[in-house]
Amino acid sequence: MRHTLRKKRDEQMPESIPPRRPGRVRAPSDDTQTGAFPVVRRRPLRTLNSNATRVRLVTSVLVALMCALLGFGYAVQVRNNQSSYQSLSEEELVRVLDETSNQVDKLEERKSQLNQQLTSIKSAADKQKEAARIAQQNEQSSGILSGRLPAQGRGVVVTVTEDSDRVDASTMFNLIEELRNAGAEVISFNDVRVVTNTYLLDTRTGLQCDHSKLQSPYVVKAIGDPDSLQNAIQIAGGVGSRIKVQFHASVSVEQSDSVRIDQVRRVQDYQYAKPVE
Asked: For residues 117-137, b (16+ Cβ closer than 10 Å) or e, as one string?
């Protein structure tokens, strides 16, 4: 009897539940029997933050490198400007100082002249008549400077005769620029009147100056202070010395109290520039 009751009681008791294994708890959607997709966890933000940090770091390095290159270029520029004057001799520095002083004197003279003209117009009884007189006077001056009118005066005549080597266009252009810097008011190159837009080119037979082909000997006439003009060409280490040493050409400079320049230029027709009314 007891044995029978114990057997019935054992049959009524539920079976023991096996212990759970440690690990991830399976979500309802992970059940393979239902056919549902597994749960995909969100990607951690650590990767995105690391990428943004890397981009900021690379950008900072590039900006720092560009700033360093810019500073280096500026330092080299300043050093080159300083060394360009430090490498000049005492005579060349004196020449540069004289040319700068001449340019300043010309500007001051022009300023004084314009102030006198303005005062003359204001104090004149007939302002229109005085203005017409000054306009005519300025027209003559501008005509000489622009090459529309012939000119004569004190100056120099520079003659460059080639030997075996040909003097290039850049060297002859430097010669003209040296005369301008020394105070030349009117310049002619062989049969060409030199103006602000004059250019020189190298050709097979010689030089070309403003559509005109020129050959040696080259004769450059300049009206201005003879001493300053001659010093600009014949100074030690100047353009005259370079022509002699580099191209084995002869350079002669003659002063004259009456340099005549008859070459003229026609008035240029301006397409875009208009006078201010």
From this structure: beeeeeeeeeeeebeeebeee
